Amino acid sequence: MGAPARTMSRPGAPAPAGRKLPWLEPAVVAGGLIPLAVLGLRARAGALGANAVAEALNQLGLLALVLLVASLAATPLKIVSGWTFPLRIRKALGLLAFFYACAHFLTYALVDQGLDVRAIVEDITERPFILAGFVALLLLVPLAATSTARMLKRLGAARWKRLHRLAYVAAVLGVAHFFLRVKKDATEPMIYAALLGALFAVRIVSAVLRRRAASR
Predict the structure, then answer these.
(1) What is the tens place of the pLDDT at every residue in 176-214?
(2) Which residue blocks in the chain are alpha helix, DSSP H?
(3) Model confidence pTM above 0.85
(4) Which of 98, 77, 74, 97 is nearest to 87 (CA)?
(5) C-alpha distances in Å from residue 12, one per residue of 15, 114, 154, 185, 190
(6) CB of 35 within 8 A of CB of 59?
(7) Is the pLDDT of residue 112 over 70?
(8) Residue 178, Cβ density class (10 Å: 0-12 exposed, 13-18 middle, ≥19 buried)
(9) Burial category of 203 from C-beta neighbours within 10 Å (exposed 0-12, middle 13-18, buried 19 and up)
């Protein structure tokens, strides 16, 4: 079979559907790990401020939330723009979010609490913002574990999709964790709440339109 003719595309135009971009996912993973490297260099140089542990916790938690919201934005972006590349990096973004969420929790458990199980359990049960973050992390565990094509085939597409809708619940809990964590200025967590609301709205409107089209 002959190779298809190449077409000229204007700079900045989205890649045509089906074009292979083998560098895209590795580039996303590499870029997603850069903030961790920067954080490590800052910690080594003693540049994290007076409360280095709190700064590390804040940065790791924020990265987890940003990446989780970015992964959830893939389908709405496809719906609104027709771009397909966000779907290709959705899994990488989600796994990076899980990685940073684990790093956030391990920094809290190992560095901040010295692996004092009793103190950790008390924090989870008595401090709502820690409970919200912990439950969000727990919800991400089965999503990361079933992120492979093999697990998709084993679960079936319908069950897999239902399970991975928990990512939205985890994101809501992540925003709640952020909101409850800040004491005065809630502007930043409110921005993430608004972004999540917009993503929900796009998915809901799309579903309603599909049902209307199917019923005609």
Answers:
(1) 999 999 877 889 999 999 999 999 999 999 989 888 888
(2) 24-44, 52-72, 74-81, 85-106, 117-126, 128-145, 149-155, 157-164, 166-181, 187-215
(3) yes
(4) 74
(5) 9, 49, 38, 37, 31
(6) yes
(7) yes
(8) buried
(9) middle
